[in-house]
Every structure is written in C-alpha cells, then in structure tokens.
Design a protein that fits this description.
about 70% helix; about 0% strand; mainly alpha
Length: about 200
Amino acid sequence: MFPVAISLDPREQSLFYCELEFYLSCAIHGYITVQLNHGRLDPDKLKRIADAWVQKGRPKVIGFRYDLETQLELIGLHINDFRFYGKRQGNPVEISGLLHTMRVNARAMRIRTFCQPDSVIAKQLVDAQYFFGLLGVPGIQLVALQQVAQFFKVIVERESHKTSRFEKTGAQPGLDLVSYQWERAACEADEKKGHKQG
C-alpha cells in the first residue's frame, strides 16, 4: 500500500485554501451580479436564500457575499434561469452534477484539517477550473486560479525533489518545526520523569 502524499504543510494548506475559497467566492459573486443585471435573478428564490440566512442568525451580507455553499445553493435554484457557458451549457443534468461536486468541495474546505492529500487538492483545482468555465468568468479570474494552481504545483515539485534526494542519499527527511518542538517537549518530559524517579 502506497502512503498518501501530503506535500503542503499546514501553513501552506491554510494559504492555499484561503486563496482558493476567496477566488471561488468572488467569481460566484460577480457571476450572480451579471445574472441580476440581465434580469435573470428570481426575487422569490433570492428571498428564500436570504430568509434562511437570517434565520440561522448570520450577519448581513453585501450583494451576494454569502458563504460558498450558500452561493452555490443560490445558483442551483436558478439552473433553468441563469445563463451558463462552456460544454455543459444547455445541459441541466451536467450543470447540477458540477454544482453538487462544488458543494461537496465547499464543505470539505470549510472543515480546516490542514492535512488534505495532494490528490484531493488536485481534484478540487480541476473542479474549480471546470466551474469557472461554466460561469464564463473573466480572464483575470482565470489567471488568479492559475496562480493558486501554480502555488500547489511548485510545492508538490519541491517535496518530490526532496523525497528523491533522500532516497538517493539514504538520509532521513528533517522534522518540520512543529514536529521538532513536539519531539523535544516529549524528550524533556521523559528526562524530568527520569530525574524524579532517580
């Protein structure tokens, strides 16, 4: 059985998901605003979302700056009203499927464990790319997503290079700072316990 590859350390995952979630949220906000300006936003469906938001005791938002899951729910209510782009346009089943995938990803992003495997992060990036195509986002937002993907790619390559170097030399990878501090604290605790018993 192969070990699960986790190239991004907790700090890097924090930065990665902060950026990914931000760009997704901004893209959806801009998309829904465009749909509103073209008269495609159903006021009753928006009211349903807004009322549910208030009932949960959440703070007032500006425009459509809800959390990612709520934004996706609002789009889902408008599958037959909003205009979509790319190869899925005109296919409500495929649009629903991608929206469901994005909702699953949004839930996963909300739970900050900071230890997501590379394979999960890579899939989330690919899903985000498909989703941006569905929304027909402006080029500047596509560039922003590419920068997030590049951040991930650089770190994966760095870790892959480290691993191959350790395999060639037979050396062990160094402990990261948190692991080092944990190991040191455990050793000090053992030493103190030994002195007390002696």
